[in-house]
């Protein structure tokens, strides 16, 4: 019996080893499936770092989740051109195809948006920390011509022209209007010529027009936008300023000191959405959304040549603030504004299109530095007096 077992044992062992050498595909056929299943089982037990190393499977269909604000645009050589688009609620990134001549102005991108160049020379991926938001892509071209930008499956045609800059003046004391940062479509230029018609006479405001509840001896400057009756409030800090904005009984905010937005810009405030900013990062972009019911009105913000540093904050309004009988009509006058938010220190971007169109933003004798003055695509903007805006990487704040 022992002889028979040993007689067959040796050929069986030799045959098994030979089979593995001659036919290795048998093992390779089964092992990858086992390994793949094991790997898939283990993913659920990995931490965030482990999961981040596993590539996500993405659909090759790039359409259906990008909406461009416009399909054509004109810009100038060497100046920033803004391409605005909206991502759907479930999307945080999208592929872009840019012409080789296009340069992304990364220093003015919002802090929560980043761009990454793909292996192909003209393909980029733009990513947002939040899904379903409007993204403003700043581009610059150094040569004139016609270009096409593709975002997802949407396309926009951009014509870049050379701007012939010429300055003529017949009177040194003539009011000069200069605004190079706000996009052309954001300004109702026809209103500028009529700005002087809204100027009141230069007589001082009578004491009877002042807020009777305010016992200060403040002398108010004439509002460039006429008010039937002046109900003013003096403000010297950020919280006082914001509380006056949401108070519908106040139509004249009188700034009596330089100040800046606080580290927690919504602390102590009422009438703002719960998702408004509670931090104020240097070099970032945060938002305060005012939602107090039907408080829109004609409002003058008199700066008295003081400065407000909004820092990273953009103040915006939602539809609940709108009163059809008294649409928003906000005037900034005799003031210096500095800030770092692409959407401007204050805007109507989150109002619906019709509400934006009925609203007005006026600037009279104003200087703006940092990021662009305003971004509200459907809002008429009226400029008068001396208005300057400089888009720069850094700015100087009087508040330190």
UniProtKB/TrEMBL annotation:
Annotated region described as Disordered, given as residue ranges: 194-222
Domain of life: Bacteria
Composition bias type Basic and acidic residues, residue spans: 201-213
Keyword presence, Membrane: yes
InterPro entries registered for this protein in UniProt: Pectate_lyase_5
Swiss-Prot/TrEMBL keywords: Membrane, Transmembrane, Transmembrane helix
Membrane-crossing segments per the record: 12-37
Pfam families per UniProt: Pectate_lyase_5
Descriptive protein name: WxL domain surface protein
Organism: Enterococcus mundtii
